[in-house]
Design brief:
Elements: E1 7-13, H1 15-24, E2 28-32, H2 37-48, E3 53-59, E4 67-78, E5 83-92, E6 118-122, H3 125-135, E7 149-155, H4 163-176, E8 180-186, H5 202-207, E9 211-213, H6 220-224, H7 237-246, E10 250-256, H8 265-280, E11 284-288, E12 297-301, H9 304-311, E13 317-319, H10 326-330, E14 336-342, E15 345-351, E16 355-357, E17 360-368, H11 374-382
Parallel strand pairs: 1-3, 7-10, 7-11, 8-9, 8-10, 12-14
Antiparallel strand pairs: 1-6, 2-5, 3-4, 4-5, 13-17, 14-15, 15-17, 16-17
Helix pairs in contact: 7-8
Length: about 400
């Protein structure tokens, strides 16, 4: 692990139990009746980026305003009735209070009298400092995976009336991963489109310096109104790669309208970028936004009416649960399994990252998950896997 994630978990436990677990000097499995949904998403993201996630404990028996131990999470799973997690490396804390902690949801410190047994917080600076001498690494700097650089492709279909919400959600998702707001690169040959938020200079005006238009990477066939894909100037892929390499903390999203990447010209652009990178001896990864692998399961509570509507395939989308948050929802990998719970009834579906439209943020129902491999089949069929020169 290269450091601590920006986000951590605050919870409470009996000090005698914590002292016993710390004295054992081994990872300790624990169970909570509270479902740590937001923490689970952040934990998976942290592990994917090779960061550790911290958990801090207050005194559950005597005074919740006193922080008494901290450790690192090695496992975290959420089910219908609660959370199972494993904590390791428990260390006593002295002279630190719960009111020093900053809630991730509000950016404000925890108030006096706060009685909730769980919260997602920003990893406090005194924990970051405790880790710094051993590693020399700050978790606010994205992990350098060798020389690897990630670029994202993106289809804005359906988001033309909600560009501000789209940009805010993507910015929040990137911040969760430790990156600055991305550079949006328009790879359309022309911008006179029906989607008002992407028409002419509308999106460029919204983003200002976070936007570049590269019509040379557009599809000439669109201008000529013929079928097929022919990139206007394939050599322009080098310039797109330059944008990605110039500022490592700011990643690149190149976009057009097409909803499904498999048959879109941006897939060809992705291959051109990987070829340009190979010529330079640079390792790149190009994948449909927001990237990631659909390894974790998201549990969503719904009404019986909604669940049965989904089963009848009368309902194609779900509102983003308030507990998930816009940034977390925007970062869900394509093909994520969501288990819908309505009392004792459950159904499993595949979803992707939050879709932003005038009616709000929603999760599109991609498929049901009757068997293993459904998510992989979906991602391969529709082009949501990463791009390499060979594919």
């Amino acid at each position: 692990m290269t450091g601590f994630a920006n986000d951590a978990v605050y919870t409470i436990l009996d000090p005698n139990e914590l002292a016993r677990l710390a004295a054992a000097h081994k990872p300790a499995p624990l169970r909570e009746t509270k479902r740590w949904v937001a923490a689970k998403v952040l934990f998976d993201e942290a592990r994917a980026r090779n960061f550790e996630m911290v958990v801090l404990y207050a005194d559950a028996a005597n005074d919740c305003s006193k922080l008494i131990y901290w450790g690192t999470l090695t496992e975290l799973e959420v089910d219908a009735t609660g959370t199972s997690y494993t904590v390791a490396n428990l260390v006593p804390l002295k002279r630190h209070r719960t009111q020093e902690l900053v809630l991730r949801s509000t950016g404000e410190t925890i108030a006096e009298g706060y009685l909730r047994p769980y919260a997602v917080i920003r990893t406090p600076s005194f924990i970051q400092r405790a880790h710094a001498p051993a590693t020399g690494v700050s978790s606010t700097v994205p992990r350098a995976e060798g020389a690897s650089t990630t670029l994202f492709s993106f289809g804005y279909c359906g988001a033309g009336s909600a560009t501000r919400a789209l940009v805010d959600a993507v910015n929040e998702a990137e911040a969760l991963r430790g990156f600055d707001p991305p550079l949006w690169v328009d790879v359309r040959a022309k911008r006179s489109v029906r989607a008002v938020g992407f028409r002419n200079r509308a999106f460029e005006s919204l983003l200002a310096a976070q936007h570049v238009w590269m019509p040379d990477l557009g599809n000439s066939c669109v201008e000529e109104r013929v079928d097929g894909i022919r990139i206007k100037n394939p050599l322009a892929a080098d310039a797109l790669l330059d944008h990605a390499l110039t500022t490592p903390r700011r990643r690149v999203i190149f976009f057009c309208w097409c909803e499904v990447p498999a048959d879109c010209h941006r897939r060809v652009v992705a291959k051109l970028v990987t070829k340009a990178a190979k010529r330079r001896g640079v390792e790149v990864n190009v994948i449909e936004w927001p990237g990631g692998e659909p390894g974790s399961v998201v549990d969503i509570d719904v009404s019986t009416a909604v669940l049965r509507s989904v089963v009848r395939e009368a309902q194609k989308t779900l509102a983003v649960p308030p507990s998930m948050g816009r940034g977390l929802a925007a970062a869900l990998p394509w093909g994520t399994t969501a288990v819908l719970h309505a009392g004792a009834e459950t159904v499993s579906i595949l979803v992707g990252p939050a879709q932003l439209a005038a009616r709000g943020a929603h999760l599109k129902i991609l498929a049901f998950t009757p068997k293993a491999g459904t998510a992989t089949d979906f991602r391969q069929r529709y082009g949501y896997e990463g791009i390499s020169e060979e594919n």
